[in-house]
Amino acid sequence: MDAWWSKHVQPALKMLADEGYILDKLIYKNNYQHRKSMHFRRLKDVQRRLRSFLKSDFISIRPLLSNTTSNNQSSQIVQLLYVLIFAMGELDELLTAISKSGESFFTLLSQSFFMPFALTVVSMLGRLQVLLQNMLDGLLDKYESLFVSLSPSIDRTALVQDFRIVFIASAEHLHTLLENYTPKPRAAAS
After folding, report:
1. CA-to-CA distance for 133 and 106, rounded, in angstroms?
2. For the segment 142-171, what is each residue's pLDDT rounded down to a tens digit?
3. Which of 64, 138, 169, 170 could form a disulfide with 96 if both were Cys (CB 3.0 to 4.6 A apart)?
4. What is d(CA 121, CA 70) in angstroms, rounded to the nearest whole number?
5. How far apart are alpha carbons 76 and 157 in whole angstroms?
6. For 36-83, how does the pLDDT look when each residue is reduced to its tens digit (9 = 90+)?
7. Mind giving me the DSSP string for 112-180?
8. CB burial class (10 A; 0-12, 13-18, 19+) of residue 61?
């Protein structure tokens, strides 16, 4: 399981930290101009949730993973499952905040206001969306394998599928926005 952490989670956390650094700089540079607008407040919500996720207890899961593989105690597996559920819940909230922020910035783009700023933010939100969605998929797979190993006599795939539907619904919302996006025509200058 430690190999799973090194292969899937650790690189994603590094990339998330890099994106968080870029987001911090972007917000710092544009704070005075946009601080009272709705799109900027939603972007700051994404920043706050990303910082919260990167500082959460999820990062301290690595020692628990190595202990679980060596001892295979059900109490440690249950504790690990709770940590994974907590992390997936935070990821879902972060994806929802990204979706709301993306809607605001797509509105800015359709009105052709602050085009360089809006394009930069939309591309950054897209990168965050992909990173977080991949991390969420990896956590769900790990949750499924641990859950099945906890009680192998019971088929738990239906529960895991329901779990996937609940957590991925918010991410699909932004994808639907991207597919249905059509720019509004600009009013002709008189």
Report:
1. 20
2. 877 777 676 555 455 645 555 555 555 544
3. 170
4. 44
5. 21
6. 888 889 999 999 999 988 887 666 666 666 555 555 566 677 677 777
7. T-SHHHHHHHHHHHHHHHHHHHHHHHHHHHHHHHHHHHH-TTS--HHHHHHHHHHHHHHHHHHHHHHHH
8. buried
The first and second tokens of residue 70, run together, are 């060596």
End-to-end CA distance of the chain: 65
pLDDT tens digits for range 77-136: 767 777 777 787 788 888 889 999 988 888 888 888 888 888 899 999 999 999 988 888
Taking a C-beta distance cutoff of 8 angstroms, is the pair 65, 2 a contact?
A: yes
Residue 166 near residue 143 (C-beta atoms within 8 A): no
For residues 3 and 9, what is the distance between their CA atoms, to the nearest angstrom? 10
Backbone angles phi, psi at 80, to 5 degrees: -65, -40
How crowded is the C-beta side of 151, counted as CA atoms within 13 Å?
7
